[in-house]
Specification:
Length: 349
């Protein structure tokens, strides 16, 4: 089937409404960039999901980072995405204006050089992410161990995707099928979706990021729905294998173990967080929290957005008082956040 034929069929689709969740923020961006919605029948809906790690990082985690950064001999190292996300009191950006020590890095491995050059400073890396970034933190830990770096620890908020997708399947019965997250699937492989597809009777299609990849994946979902199938189909085989990246999975397994974890806006999801194993607790800067005083900013509907219950423009604050320059909720801050992506592409949905 040619691309033109697929587009023709997707535009003409007139069966039962199909709601497809794209879990990954990069897929959401690509859907806008390629004008995918405009090519689909109104009966095929694309819904954005929980694939933004910064968006689901609890406020207490940000509060703790700020407490650490305020200590005069400490410095927090982080990626830029975390700077504007608000904790219960303020964001890291605001904390810097009040004297907090924060340095933005592009690669976690830069932390090694910095820690070696300033041995009098205790550095704490804000290790936030899904399976895509966790192996990099594992490599960082390898370096810390082998180079005997004593002034660098991690504050972790690391999560895995399958329990979150499972949560969506349990709670949001209106989602009919999933575009599986592309980058995460590179690490975890495509076989891991088989149990979900079977249990919830929903197709899972792993897609690449180009427009034609997404269209082919959506076409495959529509085909399966029309034929009453619910299978895992890997359509991104040049990057995603059945079993995933074994080297990356091994480094995760070496340092981290699964525990229940808290997702901002969602709550606790069983066995969804990666925490440092006991043997490596000396590298932990206090990542276990006794209590999550969860609170979304007043009026913010990030939780409904990441669970696919509403699209961002349905939030009353969207683009009125919540914008990337002055974000109210975390979904507007991160480059992978659904609200931020919709804001940048407003008028194109
Ligand atoms: Fe939250 Fe802003 Fe998104 Fe509304 S538009 S859900 S306030 S991030």
């Amino acid at each position: 089937m040619t691309l033109d034929q697929m587009i023709e069929k997707l535009a003409a689709y007139d069966g039962e409404e199909i709601k497809i969740m794209e879990v990954c923020g990069t897929h959401t961006s690509s859907i806008f960039k390629n004008g995918i919605r405009s090519l689909l029948s109104p009966k095929i809906k694309l819904i954005s999901g929980p694939g933004c790690p910064v968006c689901v990082t609890p406020t207490v985690y940000i509060d703790k980072l700020i407490d650490i950064a305020m200590h005069k001999e400490h410095c927090v190292l982080t990626f830029g995405d975390m700077m504007k996300v608000k904790g219960s009191r303020m964001s890291l950006t605001s904390a810097v204006s009040q004297g907090a020590h924060v340095q933005v890095l592009y690669s976690p491995l830069d932390a090694i050089k910095i820690a070696k050059e300033h041995k009098d400073v205790q550095y704490v890396f804000a290790a936030v992410g899904f399976e895509t970034t966790t192996p990099v933190y594992g490599v960082l830990l390898d370096e810390i161990e082998s180079k005997k770096i004593e002034n660098l620890k991690l504050l972790t908020s690391l999560k895995i995707m399958i329990p979150a997708i499972s949560y969506v399947c349990e709670k949001e019965d209106k989602i009919d099928a999933f575009l599986a997250p592309g980058h995460v699937s590179v690490i975890i492989g495509s076989d891991v979706y088989k149990d979900l597809a079977k249990k919830y009777k929903k197709p899972f299609v792993v897609a690449g990021f180009e427009g034609e990849h997404l269209l082919a994946a959506i076409y495959e979902i529509v085909r399966q729905k029309e034929q009453g199938q619910y299978e895992v189909k890997n359509m991104y085989k040049n990057a995603v294998s059945d079993k995933g990246n074994q080297a990356a999975l091994s480094v995760i397994e070496k340092y981290f173990e699964l525990e229940d974890d808290f997702w901002r806006g969602i709550g606790v999801i069983k066995k969804s967080g990666l925490h440092l194993k006991d043997a490596y607790q000396k590298y932990d800067a206090g990542s276990d929290f006794d209590e999550y005083r969860e609170k979304m900013p007043n009026g913010c509907r990030c939780a409904d957005v990441i669970l696919g219950r509403i699209t961002p423009p349905k939030c009353p604050l969207f683009s009125k008082i919540c914008t990337p320059m002055d974000a109210v909720g975390p979904c507007m801050v991160s480059t992978e956040g659904v609200c931020g992506i919709w804001y940048k592409n407003r008028g194109k949905a």
